[in-house]
Amino acid sequence: MAHHHLRKDRTCLNCNYVVENRFCSRCGQENTETRQSFAHLVTHFFEDFTHYDNYFWKTIKTLLFKPAVLTKEYLAGKRQLYVPPVKLYIFISFITFLTVGLLQSDDNEAETDRNLNEALKLEKKDEATSGQQRGRDNDDLAYISEYNFNSIHEMDSIQKTLPPPKRLKGMNHWMATKLIQIKENTRKEGFSEKFRESFLHNVPKVLFIYMPFFAFGLWVMHNKKKWYFFDHGIFTLHYFSFLLISYLIPFLIGSLLSLVDWMEIDGIMHLGFLAWSFFYFFRSHSKFYGERKAISRLKGMVLFVINMFFITLLLLVLFIYSVLNIH
């Protein structure tokens, strides 16, 4: 990289410490002239971009094809060669969900809308057959679903005509209200688009919140004297970064394949990345913690099953939350 001209004044502009060489020994700032020519600014921009580009792609290459090496290098103190774990995860997370949001297929949205319209037709048929059953007690969800109120106003009006013991109260009333809101939302144009945006908007938050629990599971399963929670946290950041990339790459390739009608390859490609992701966890776990293969595989399987259960549960909760909070 090209160097800026050094200042004649040896006082650091950042901390006022005396600079003996090019860099301040206290804060590390380079003691160069603050004003440069436009040509130098353009040159410096491209040099920095190229430097970061090599720096970033080296990190990605190591992350994808050398399980656990990136984590071991970072904990060994080699931190100038790669993108820091937190910055790497945030950047990959941003790029992944931005790309997915921009390139989500309009065909999938249209298909979802068609499915919703078919579901609404079935609901209308159910309403016609269940209209005579509205005198039942409200002790369970069957009562709520069989009423099939078309609006909250209609529900409140009917409730006023019923004797107090038969009126919806508490949790039943809340759930009936939410069911009505869902029905009203599904009738609106763009429901699937709003749902998708809401879901994708919250997935990064869910994953970020879950990562400490993932690291906690690693901490529970391994030697507390040999491994700090910090070590498990770095392993977690790198593994979740890998998962996001292993989702983004086939998504991008699948989007390109859809343009040339080669979608029969898409399923095979996704299956391949899924298999690599499964293998990657056990490989990185074994290489990083350095345990005997049988013990490492057993711990890895226990951790994998537990985390798959809780991640699936969280995504289900997120799905329900996204549906209930679309306006």
Automatic annotation (TrEMBL):
Record has Transmembrane as a keyword: yes
Protein keywords: Membrane, Transmembrane, Transmembrane helix
Transmembrane segments: 88-105, 203-221, 233-253, 265-282, 302-324
Zinc among keywords: no
Annotated Pfam families: DUF3667
Coiled coil regions in record: none
The protein's name in its UniProt record: DUF3667 domain-containing protein
Species the sequence originates in: Flavobacterium kingsejongi
Classification lineage: Bacteria, Pseudomonadati, Bacteroidota, Flavobacteriia, Flavobacteriales
